[in-house]
Amino acid sequence: MLTPSSFACGQWVAPGPDAAQIIGPVSGGVIARAGGAALDYAAMVEHAVQRGGPALRAMTFHDRARMIKALAQAIDARKEELYALNGLTGATRKDGWADIEGGIFTLLGIAGKGRREMPDGHVYVDGPVEALSRKGGFLGQHIAVPLRGVAVHINAFNFPVWGMLEKLGPTLLAGVPAIVKPATQTCYLTEACVRIMLESGLLPDGALQLIVGGTGDLLSRLGPQDVVSFTGSAETGLKLRSTPALLRNATRFVAEQDSLNASILGPDVAPGSPAFDLFVRQVVTEMTVKAGQKCTAIRRILAPEAHLDALGEAIAARLGQVTIGDPAGDAEMGALASADQKQAVLDVIAALEGETCAIASGQNDIPEGPGTGFLAPHLLHCADPDAAARVHEMEAFGPVSTLMPYRDLDHAAALANRGGGSLVASLVTDDPAVARQVAVETAAWHGRLYITGTSVLKEGTGHGAPLPALVHGGPGRAGGGEELGGVRGVLHYMQRTAIQGSADVLTAITGQWVPGAAEIAGPEHPFRRNFDAIGIGETLWTETRQVTLEDIEHFAHFTGDTFYAHMDEDAARANPFFPGRVAHGYLLLSFAAGLFVQPDPGPVLANTGLNGLSFQKPVSPGDSLRVRLVARRKTRRTDSYGEVAWHVTLYNQDREQVAEYELLTMVAYAA
Ligand code: NAP
Questions:
Q1: Fewer Cβ atoms within 10 A, N terminus or C terminus of the chain?
Q2: Ligand 1, residues 295, 296, 341: which to mutate, most atoms within 8 A of Cβ?
């Protein structure tokens, strides 16, 4: 008998006398007692805000990203403990892979985004500096900082590990503590994963708490700096988001709800073709993985009228081969999470009667038994999807999908959109024009469009797989929320603020040098200085170099770039951009490097790139160049070196800017 505990205010709290009994969907017997503990929700919020928040905010984004990566590694090292419980939820090992390894992969992806795309500091810079005054001295810059409250994560039963980790990663990266409340039916698996993370010792006190069971008055205690991230049914979502305290305080409520996802077989895809087969496999996968209990599963299959019968037969044939049984054994499909869940699915199938007829259902052998959750896949057929209503509205959260015909692409798009807002829609086509038409007509209604075909037969990531770098969420019925999407998902736990001030003020706040801010004269050439010694704003003004006609001709013949603007005076003059023959932009860049480089071996290890290059004014033979190099931003990268981004400006003899860019170098730390 499992007894998953809550973790509140730094203590494990065992189930109370009123704990609920959890019936295992495979055995039909009681497998756990959970909940019923007398938790002090106010103290939990206080603990998160007073202990967890400050500790997380003391870390930089990169510190937190490293912590998240280490958490993923800690889970990975003990993942067999999670697989040992996974089968009890009704899930096969393959299903568990999506949940457990998918969760680890998601944490690693979020950590990587944090290291690559966020600063090694405490303030996230959002977008470019905006000039606000005519002389350019008064500027605007959006920044984002962590909210000062707690994130309450309320999760669905179907992904007890991934569902927690996909929210926890962005929350921790933002610098916000979390209270996780898993669905009771599968909470023991979430609890095991929380134990692994806490036992790793990586998390600061108060950063992560767990509620097994009900949330009591928790939501009523939340305020303007808190976030609720909810995953579950639209019905529960509506109830929770209507909590008066959340409405009164404008508490952020991120919702991922149910979704009538559609998949469209392109009109160009003929039965028997590799793309047709791909479509069939995709539908069968989405119906059977996790026994169809995926928020992203395909609920509606849209096919051209002419191919509907062939498609139905192909899907039914494959579904008929799926073995169903004990997920700990060889079965390809396990059980739904509970007998109640199975009944809920059967109720929806019954409600769809009249609009649909079954094509293939209940064909497979399934283990029977009271209290179990085994259910054969049900492929339904809806002949008149325009007249039907329930098939576009009722979600059977199990191995159920409805096949329906479309006349043309506009009709297919209109049917896909009738889900009222979904997490994902997919299209199989080999025709980019079909893809464009469907995307333009459907994108507004779907959080993700998954378009695949013959050219990416083996590379597609899967209709049902949310990815850490891409947004997961959808409009309307799907909850109107967004999660993941790289740094976008982190910003849900941060406040975006527009800062107005001088260049010096913006530099001080962001830790990144802003043009117009003070230039600091270093004691020596900055390329002689190691990473730690270089100060933000440290500036080098180079000597001057004249650009001659011989230089231009030499460069043209040496590189082969004999474009007329550099070679032909009359033709260049006829061009609206040039006063006559001008220097190549790349010649200017090369001369700039020659002016600022420090030739001896030193801390600068490599030049790794260049951002935001613009050529702003032509340089004519006889003009002189001078370069200013300013240390703009520093980011630690490895144990031995970090990246220094330099703001580089090229000036002519009249102190006019002729070119500007950001130069990236890798610089060694202090020896
Ligand atoms: P649910 O019944 O709505 O429950 C979702 C979560 O809300 C559970 O943790 C549940 O806890 C909790 N909850 C219910 N009532 C509550 C209350 N009054 N106060 C606080 N918490 C409360 O959904 P489910 O049956 O677990 O999940 C299936 C649904 O989730 C499907 O409709 C599916 O489409 C959707 N889903 C969506 C996504 C997505 O990303 N969009 C992902 C997965 C699932 P208890 O278990 O303790 O009741």
A1: C
A2: 295
Please state, for a pLDDT cut of 90, what percent of the chain lies above it: 94
Three-state helix/strand/coil letters over 533-568: CCCCCEEEEEEEEECCHHHHHHHHHHHCCCCHHHHC
247 and 279: one domain? no
Q: Are 246 and 101 within one domain?
A: yes
Identify whether 193 is a catalytic site residue.
no
> What is the CATH classification number for the domain harbouring 176?
3.40.605.10
Q: Say if residue 335 is in the same domain as residue 204.
A: no
Strand 300-304 and strand 400-406: the pairing is: parallel
What whole-number distance in Å separates Cα of residue 109 and Cα of residue 75?
15
* pLDDT (tens digit per residue) in 605-615: 999 999 999 99
DSSP H or E run through 321 = none
Q: Which ranges in 90-233 belong to alpha helices (H)?
A: 93-96, 102-117, 162-174, 187-199
Which residue range is the domain that position 353 belongs to?
262-464
pTM over 0.85: yes
Q: Are residues 542 and 639 in the same domain?
A: yes
Shared domain check, 344 and 450: yes
Q: Whose CA is nearest to atom 30 of ligand 1?
A: 232
The CA-atom distances, in angstroms, between 38 and each of 4, 16, 245, 254, 408 are 14, 7, 22, 27, 58
425 Cα–ligand 1 center, Å: 22
Q: Cα–Cα distance between 389 and 382 in angstroms, integer? A: 11
Spatial CA neighbour of 399 closest among 319, 516, 466: 319
Counting beta carbons within 10 angstroms of the beta carbon of residue 606, is it exposed (0 to 12), middle (13 to 18) or buried (19 or more)?
exposed
Q: Are 28 and 371 in contact (CB under 8 A)?
A: yes
- Name the residue at shortest CA distance from atom 28 of ligand 1: 232
- Please indicate, yes or no, whether residues 353 and 225 belong to a single structural domain of this protein: no
Structural domain total, the chain: 3
| Mean pLDDT confidence for 318-332 | 91
Domain assignment of residue 471, yes or no: no
**Residue 295 is a catalytic residue:** yes
Residue 491 lies in a domain: no
Task: Give the pair of three-digit tokens for residue 503.
Answer: 């260049």
Kindly tell me if the per-residue pLDDT of 645 is higher than 80: yes
Which residue from 154, 238, 483 has its CB within 8 A of the most atoms of ligand 1, so it is best to mutate? 154
> At 349, which helix (H) or strand (E)?
helix 339-352
At residue 28, does pLDDT exceed 80?
yes
- Using the 3D structure, point to which of 237, 257, 277 is the last residue of a domain: 257
